[in-house]
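Protein modeling request. Please complete all fields; requests missing the sequence field cannot be processed.
Requester role: graduate student
Desired output: 3D structure, token encoding
Chains: 1
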Amino acid sequence: MSSVSSRAIGAIVGGFIADAAGLPLHWIYNTADLGAIVAKYDKPEFIPEGQCPFYKVPTGSLSAYGDQCYVLLKSLVDNKGLNVDSYKSSLKSTFGPGSAYDIDHSGPKPINGPWISHNISNFLKNCNENKEKPGDTESKDMDGVCKISPLVALYAGDPKLMEYVETVVRITQNNDIAVRFALAGAKLVEDYVLNGPNPQAVDKMMSSVDSEAKDAIQEVLKTKTEPHAEVVKKNGSSCAMPGNFKNALHGVVNATDDFVTSARPSMVAGGDNVSRLMFIGTCLGAQGGVESLPSDWLSKTTKAGEIKGLAEQLFAMRK
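Delivered output (319 residues):
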């Protein structure tokens, strides 16, 4: 079985490469259109030209979810742990005025460049207004779930991990639903990092979350044998939770030890596929270790080499 270090690094890198792989098919809600696009290629990952109807970035790039996770990863490494003020500053420089995300969204779509998450826009606005708590109070989107892997890699086994997860999520999403499912996701990834593949991991997670998260997880287990695309359609394919967390977890509980074939069903299920893929990829990497990650996906993800190096530095900081 893989080592804790390999699984911690795999959790981080796995999420990023899954995000990049599915990005060309992001936010395509018309499943007929999506099917026609996918049919043109021999495989759905890393389609050469982005098909997202809202924005276009080069294939191999990270989504806004991935970039948020990257900011946290780098901040943790640079500061030898969680430094809230430095993390906020990094978010502002990555997504704020003068950044690649500083683009006018009011014109024709798709825009040429990355699409900023709504909660990040509100975070920046609230920071500019000097609000003590700048996190978006309305955002129930998957952003928080998508960026847990660096925290888990560094603090797995530390009693303060869940406190750190909540702190980080509330910086940009000061919303109980966003926190609830980020904590649930972190508990599952922590179990995989510390213990490896474990058929009982989801049951263990269910015993340590609040009643609303437990209900959502039970719904996932009840629909486990249903086709993934049908589950996504039933839950809704938008960014919001609990629906998209349930979609992502459905992908996890139906995964095998093959990273690529486990990621593809959610990649082609429509809507906000990359947020689902980040969590699925994180869980797959946390189970199989970095050696289980597909080498061609690593080579096609623009920042993969840098991310792997940062993940290695992060794990080396564990006490």
